[in-house]
Amino acid sequence: MPGGRHVAAVNGVSFELAAGECLALVGESGCGKSVLASALLGLLPGNARTRGTALLGPDDRIDLLGAEETTLARTVRGRRAGLIPQSPAAHLTPVRTVRSQLEETVRELRDTRRGALRAAAEAAAARAAFPADHLDRYPHQLSGGLAQRAATALALVADAPLLIADEPTTGLDRDLVDRTVDELRRHTDEGHGLLVITHDLAAAARMADRVAVMYAGRIVEVATAADFFGAAGPRHPYARGLLDALPERAFAPIPGLPPELDALPEGCAFAARCDRATDICTTLPALTGGVACHHASEAVDA
Ligand SMILES: Nc1ncnc2c1ncn2[C@@H]1O[C@H](COP(=O)(O)OP(=O)(O)OP(=O)(O)O)[C@@H](O)[C@H]1O
Ligand code: NI
């Protein structure tokens, strides 16, 4: 960071994602979701440091955190791991139309004959609800929502075994959110792995097999979507707070603010906002059995 400050944006994160599975990563703004996505794809700024391993398999397993940039650029990004970026407009090539970018991707990745290129590009656009009569536009001629759908179409056409979608439905109205979510679910069911980052818990409930909740740079809970959104409910007090904040539930926001990432407490980062916190919360709870909370196994007042 400027001024030589050091920010631990993501810490001790560990999870698995299978082919044909969708994992939703949720959590408040600034908790480290996009940094995690960028780290996995080697897209962090040059002054960022990563530690650990992130294996992408099953064949030709590669450690995404240890791989050389040239390897990531040539063989991983776009081919083995796709990204729908959080700011899609900035990632589209400004001087080329959406159609030409889609066709180019098809041409690079598949052995498609010329006539089939156009059809493949148009099919991908349709899947992402990108209107065919806008295909010949340049990125600067697109609204935010259209740029979002263009990025989704590009990711779908690239057909990578792993797709990381960072807020793929921002700026879309509910109808389009549902269409996009259903299309991404279909993509997952075709055998792709999907890590979807979202603020939209309703979208997560609609598409995810499992949910990972991030708070101040750490994963504090991983649960099946059925448990998380169903009768069992989340077990981490923060995760419960996220659900309770929804208008269709208690509509009760979590009081307080998350800690600054350059001034994290040694213990549980949520303790200062948590009504269950006790002395033990000054030590860091490990993620065991899917939850990182000293009080997770205690009964909750309804
Ligand atoms: N290049 C950078 N240099 C320094 N700090 C950064 C940099 N990029 C991100 N951060 C910090 O890392 C933290 C995590 O940011 P990140 O973008 O991952 O959050 P997020 O969970 O994706 O939030 P949002 O939901 O708003 O997209 C933030 O506090 C941010 O200020
Ligand atoms: Ni983000």
TrEMBL record:
Reactions catalysed: Ni(2+)(out) + ATP + H2O = Ni(2+)(in) + ADP + phosphate + H(+)
PROSITE patterns the record matches: ABC_TRANSPORTER_2
Recorded GO MF terms: ATP binding
SMART domains to which the protein is assigned, alphabetical: AAA
Broadest EC class assigned to this enzyme: translocase
UniProt keyword Cell membrane present: yes
EC number: 7.2.2.11
Subcellular location(s) of the protein: Cell membrane
Pfam families assigned: ABC_tran (PF00005), oligo_HPY (PF08352)
Signal peptide: none
Translocase keyword on record: yes
Membrane topology reported for the UniProt record: Peripheral membrane protein
Record-annotated ABC transporter domain positions: 1-241
Keywords in alphabetical order: ATP-binding, Cell membrane, Ion transport, Membrane, Nickel, Nickel transport, Nucleotide-binding, Translocase, Transport
Matches recorded under PANTHER family: NICKEL ABC TRANSPORTER, ATP-BINDING PROTEIN, OLIGOPEPTIDE TRANSPORT ATP-BINDING PROTEIN APPD
Subunit text: The complex is composed of two ATP-binding proteins (NikD and NikE), two transmembrane proteins (NikB and NikC) and a solute-binding protein (NikA).
Family statement: Belongs to the ABC transporter superfamily.
Designated name of the protein: Nickel import system ATP-binding protein NikD
